[in-house]
Amino acid sequence: MNNKKFELLAPAGDLEKLKVAVLYGADAVYLGGTSFGLRAKAKNFDEKQMKEGIDFAHSHGAKVYVTCNIYAHNGDFENMAEYFKSLEEMGADAILVADPGVFALARKTVPNLDIHISTQANNTNFLSALFWKELGAKRIVMARELSLEEIREISQNIGDTEIEAFVHGAMCISYSGRCLLSNYFTGRNANTGECAHPCRWKYYVTESTREGEYLPVVEEERGTYIFNSKDLCMIEHIPQLYNSGVYSLKIEGRMKTSFYVATVVKAYRQAIDDFLKDPALYEKRKSYYKEEVSKASYRGFTTGFYYGSPGSEEQVYTNSSYIREYDFLGIVLEYDSENKIAVIEQRNKFSVGDKAEFLTQKGESFPYEIEEIRDKEGNTTETANHARQIVKMKVDRPLFKYDILRKKAEGDESEA
Ligand code: SF4
User: What is d(CA 347, CA 391) in angstroms, rounded to the nearest whole number?
Assistant: First the structure.
């Protein structure tokens, strides 16, 4: 195997998720500031958090990319140059840009700061990629609608310009987020990051003279979900991504939980490391990676457009639920190795007697039966069920801050 390496790129919706992503093995994270990004609803980073996040990532050898991918109107440029300069001063490793005007301003004001061209710019061919390369882009994020064959062709034509591609997470039914469904139904604009996800709702057909009579398109009593895509998952196709010239493997989901980020990042980290070390080992462990990645919620998996246009089997017609095989019970805040006591912040109810497991950033996960829970004051309690309740539990094996307590879910589905 040659020396070329992948980059595993993870979403960082807030500071905790950034730290989780880095500790569980991401080589880089992407995040939004409070201005000029697309994910308005994600808890974006203010200046202080951004600085802390960048310093944390750098101290662990990881990079930070900041999304500045709005489609700017004339009035949006106010303060943008200062913002770029402050990102550069804070040590951001690159900005993600979609709009040519924003790109031009960034080149002028921060010529030494790397620019990645966002998927929002719909990069679907090598001439577009060359266009951005010649203007100075360091990296191009591929449109989700490309096949591996098309990516290979682009890669062969753009020299050392890096290629980033989505490998895991939710898919839009529309063209890379260019969608008016949300705007039409709710007034919330998908392209400023406020999507209400109406593609996940259920739809019926009505005949114009039969008011109130709803005809299902597919016979299923809860209606049909004609726009509801499965989630992308390429964990079983790492060699194919490698051979197509993709450098950065991007996980979608700045709105997801720390549990989701930890689970998905760790699974891809293992898959990539195994593949780079020994492709035969990777082939042998493929079903394990898939099983691990499935412990984060998903809507069924698809390989999207990578092997050609998705067919009807890439949609979920029967419901809009997530499959959730594991519950996120809590996250480790501290571990006292002398007394073997873990301090845990609760995220979902758990009780004495639960058969849980720890997902650890280092080494294999391990089973853990909850025998005793103590509250902050040291009193025993049967259950941890207050939001973000701090509890203490005896755990013999060493833990680290941000290790995660999880449990196999009793029902396997939850509403999206
Ligand atoms: S409604 Fe669905 S398809 Fe449209 S932008 Fe939102 S998530 Fe994407």
Answer: 11
